[in-house]
Every structure is written in structure tokens, then in C-alpha cells.
From TrEMBL:
<feature type="transmembrane region" description="Helical">
    <location>
        <begin position="199"/>
        <end position="217"/>
    </location>
</feature>
<feature type="domain" description="NTCP5/P3 N-terminal">
    <location>
        <begin position="40"/>
        <end position="147"/>
    </location>
</feature>
<dbReference type="Pfam" id="PF01758">
    <property type="entry name" value="SBF"/>
</dbReference>
<feature type="transmembrane region" description="Helical">
    <location>
        <begin position="255"/>
        <end position="275"/>
    </location>
</feature>
<dbReference type="InterPro" id="IPR057103">
    <property type="entry name" value="NTCP5_P3_N"/>
</dbReference>
<feature type="transmembrane region" description="Helical">
    <location>
        <begin position="358"/>
        <end position="378"/>
    </location>
</feature>
<keyword id="KW-0732">Signal</keyword>
<comment type="similarity">
    <text>Belongs to the bile acid:sodium symporter (BASS) (TC 2.A.28) family.</text>
</comment>
<keyword id="KW-0812">Transmembrane</keyword>
<dbReference type="InterPro" id="IPR002657">
    <property type="entry name" value="BilAc:Na_symport/Acr3"/>
</dbReference>
<feature type="signal peptide">
    <location>
        <begin position="1"/>
        <end position="28"/>
    </location>
</feature>
<dbReference type="GO" id="GO:0016020">
    <property type="term" value="C:membrane"/>
</dbReference>
<feature type="transmembrane region" description="Helical">
    <location>
        <begin position="422"/>
        <end position="443"/>
    </location>
</feature>
<protein>
    <recommendedName>
        <fullName>NTCP5/P3 N-terminal domain-containing protein</fullName>
    </recommendedName>
</protein>
<feature type="transmembrane region" description="Helical">
    <location>
        <begin position="229"/>
        <end position="249"/>
    </location>
</feature>
<dbReference type="Pfam" id="PF24690">
    <property type="entry name" value="NTCP5_P3_N"/>
</dbReference>
<feature type="transmembrane region" description="Helical">
    <location>
        <begin position="296"/>
        <end position="317"/>
    </location>
</feature>
Amino acid sequence: MLELPKLVWAAAMKLLLLLLPILGRACCRVESNSSAAALSYVSIGDGTSTQFDFPENTQGIIVVSSRYGSAQEKDGSRLLVQSLDPDVLTIINISDAETIGLVKSYIVSIKSGMAGTAPLLVRLLDVTSVVPVTVEERTDYIIKILPNDDDLGYTSLAHFSQNPLLYFLLPLIFINKCAFGCKVEVTVLRDVLKQPHPVILGVIGQFLLMPLYGYILSKIFSLPKALSLGLIITCSTPGGGGGYLYSLLLGGDVTLAISMTLISTVVATGMMPLSSTIYTHILNVHETLHVPFTKILVTLLFIAIPISTGMLVKYKLPRVSKFLLLLIRPLSFILIIGGLFMAYQMGASILYNVHKEIILAGVAVPVFGLLIGYLLAYCVGLPVPLCKTVSIEIGVQNSLLALAVLQLSFRRIEADFASQAPFIVALSSTSEMLLLVIFHFIYKNLRPSPEENDFKS
């Protein structure tokens, strides 16, 4: 009978020995979790939230608490707070609240800019030793700047589709594109397929050199992050639909211009997302950019359908084709002036607060594109008309496509602010090309023709 209690006792001891390691590990986990929680010395507010809303264009304060042990000592710790997006939120100063007790409080004065999100870098330092030691560093706090509803009425861009002038210009645009289709030469199209040097140069200039140039300009002029992104996206767009119009007026090759515009628009479906990904990472932009593939397809159709119609008219109705060719130049001038007027009217709401730096950058973009395009074509030995065409295709961007990207990717206020870049580039491009056309016509009229030189001799 005495053996039974001994056996029970031995079994209980063995079970206890088996459970001790498990209980020890559980205790260690609890202890480590509690110590990890205790290590979180810094908190904003009551510590239950990591995101805080704040109105735009406003000054205010946030209170940061520290439960670090050295906080009980006077000047034993120091708090550093940095905004990771200064365009959205600026840290003005940090002061000690001179609180009494175990919790030390700091008052951080802030000033909000445009609507957006600004992550904070919060760092607590122990300064009791000669060399300050980082006690804790947190990057999970975010200040969300909300737009003022009162500003929505007059700061946003008027949508171009609501402009009544567009309904007058659309039929003229279609007729003008049909007329350009009448100028397309099938032999030139075959030459483009056999020797695609101009097209390759156009792709290199539009999708590699121009975005890089936009990034360099944003650094030179120290543009805010939103404007920098807007400028780079504008420089990443394919050639504008007016490229072949300027090629005609400036003595370029119209067929090559149309081919380059169509091909660059197709290439943009792959290159624009790639370029956007690279530069949003470089600029540390948190929003995801949406490339409007539907708009790109509509752009392709809006070019291809009337051009194809014009080519069909040329071979089936030669008399109508001759009449359309007579309309090209006057219609082109009307469309340039109408487009310029509509662009100014569309963006009048943002002209009152446009940054002078983005004006300078916007003026420089078409100039660089024209120069680098001509230089690339000249270096590979292309004839002057082809050099002009490559230059124009690289120098004239599809700014409306850039506007669509920004409007789809950001909230209204942020999108309109970033849209200053493509808007200014569009105005600069149209104005500069109009000046070039005027100077070209003046030069042609003042320069004596070869027949006059022969007559004088």
C-alpha cells in the first residue's frame, strides 16, 4: 500500500519536470512582451492612434510625451521631430512643456501646407552622457493634412471638356486631321519601317532624356515634391497631337511626324508606368500613379481614324483631297490660336498662385526637347526635314495626358497643385512653337527665292 503513494508522487514530479521548461518559456514571452511595451517611451496624444488629421495652411501644435527614466532629470533627454514631407508639413520648433512628474511633455509647433500625408520621424535622445544616445526612434506617426472645403471652388482647374470653345474646335480638328491624312505618303511609311532611326531617336528622347531633364530641373529650381512629380510626368508623355501640325508649318516631314506620334503613344503604355515607378521612388512619393490607358487608346483612335479617312479620301476622291489640302494651313493657325486661348482660360484659376520656379522650368522644357531632338537627328546624319520632325516630336509633349495622370492619382487639391507643371509646359510649348512658326514665315518671305537670284544675275 505504501508503494502506491510513492508511484503517484514520482509520476507527479516527472510531470512537473516536463512542464517547467514550457512554463519558463511562457514566462519569458510575457516578460519580453512587457519589456518591449515598456521600451515604447514616446507617444503622441494618448498613445492609442498613430494618424492625426490637421487642416491645410494652418499653424498649430502637437504634444509628444516621454516616459523615459532620464526624463525625470532636468535636461536629461531631448526630442527631435522631423517631417518627411516638408511640402505638406513643416516643423517650426520644439519646446519643453516643463511638466512635473514621471512623464515629460514636449510641445511641437507645426505649420501645414497643401493637402497630403506627412510621415514623422520622432527621435528621443539621452543627453546625460558626453555623446547623445538614441533611446527610441519612431516613424509610424503620420499627420494627414485635409483640404479646406472653401478653397475647392476657385483653386481647381476647370475641366477642358466643359469648355464651349472645344465643341467649336472639335469638327475643325477632325477636318484638319483628315487633311493631314491626304498628305501621307505610303512610300515614306515604308521607309520608316525599313529605317526606323527617327522613331528610335524619338523614343529615346521622349521616354529617357526628357524625364531625366525634368528631374534635373526640379532639383535646380528646388520645386516642391508635387510640382516635381508633375513636371517629370509631363516630360514622360509621348509626342503631342500637334507635332505633325508644326512639322507641316516648319518644313518637316508630315508622314514621319504622324508615324512617330502614333508609335510613341503606343510605347507610352509601357514606358509611362515604368518612368512613374522610378521617379516616384526617387522622390519618395507615397501615392500610386494611375496611367490612363483608356485615354491613351482614345488618343490613338482620335489620331488614327481621321488620318486613315484622309488617306482613303486621297486615293478615292482626289478632288476632295485637293480641297482639304488647301484648308490645312488656315485651319492649323485657327487651332493653334484656339488651343492657346482655351489653355489660358482653362488654367486661369491657378495662375494667381503659380510658382515662378515652375514657370521657368516649364519654359525650359520645350526648348531643351527641341534642341536635343535636332542634335540627336543631326548626329546620325538625317536630312534637315527629318531633323526638324524629330526635334518637334521630342519637344512637344502631350500635356493633357499628364493632366489626366495627375487628376486620377491625387485628391482634387493635390492634383490641381501638381497640374501647374503640365499646364505651364503646354502654354510654353504652344507659345514657343507659334513664335517659331511666325519667324519661319517671316524668314521665308524675306529671303529671296532662287528664281529671283537667277534673274538678278
